C-alpha cells in the first residue's frame, strides 16, 4: 500500500496543505502557514472524524463546515 501524505508543501500557494484519508479518499483540510499548524488542524479533524464515526457511524463527518480551508 502506498503511503499517503498528510502534510505537504504547496510551492504555488507557498503554504502547507493538510490531508486526512477517510471514506476511501484523501480529504483536503486546508492550507496553513506552518507545518505545526497543519498538523494541529489534521489532528483536530481526525479526532472529529473518529468521534463522528463512533457516535454516528451511519452519518459521514462534515468537516467542511467545521474547518475552513484557509486558516
Label this structure with key terms.
71 residues; 2 helices; 28% strand; alpha+beta
What's the total count of β strands? 3
N-to-C series of helices and strands: EEEHH
Tally of alpha and pi helices: 2
Query: What is the alpha-carbon Rg in Å?
Result: 12 Å
Q: What value does the average pLDDT take? A: 76
Distance between the termini: 31 Å
How is the biggest beta sheet arranged?
Answer: 3 strands, antiparallel
Structure commentary:
The structure is a single chain. The chain has one domain (7-66). The chain is 35% helix and 28% strand. The protein contains 2 helices and 3 strands; from the N terminus they run βββαα. The chain has a 3-stranded antiparallel β-sheet, with helices on one face. β2 and β3 form a beta hairpin. The radius of gyration is 12 Å and the shape is globular.
Q: What's a concise summary of this model?
A:
The chain contains 2 helices and 3 strands, in the order βββαα. It has helices at residues 35-55, 63-66; strands at 7-10, 15-22, 25-32.
Secondary structure: elements and pairs:
Elements lengths: L6 E4 L4 E8 L2 E8 L2 H21 L7 H4 L5
Antiparallel strand pairs: 1-2, 2-3
Amino acid at each position: 500500500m502506498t503511503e499517503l501524505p498528510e502534510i505537504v508543501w504547496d510551492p504555488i500557494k507557498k503554504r502547507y496543505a493538510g490531508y486526512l484519508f477517510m471514506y476511501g479518499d484523501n480529504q483536503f483540510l486546508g492550507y496553513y502557514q506552518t507545518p505545526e499548524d497543519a498538523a494541529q488542524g489534521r489532528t483536530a479533524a481526525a479526532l472529529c472524524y473518529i468521534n463522528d464515526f463512533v457516535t454516528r457511524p451511519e452519518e459521514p463527518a462534515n468537516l467542511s463546515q467545521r474547518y475552513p480551508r484557509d486558516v
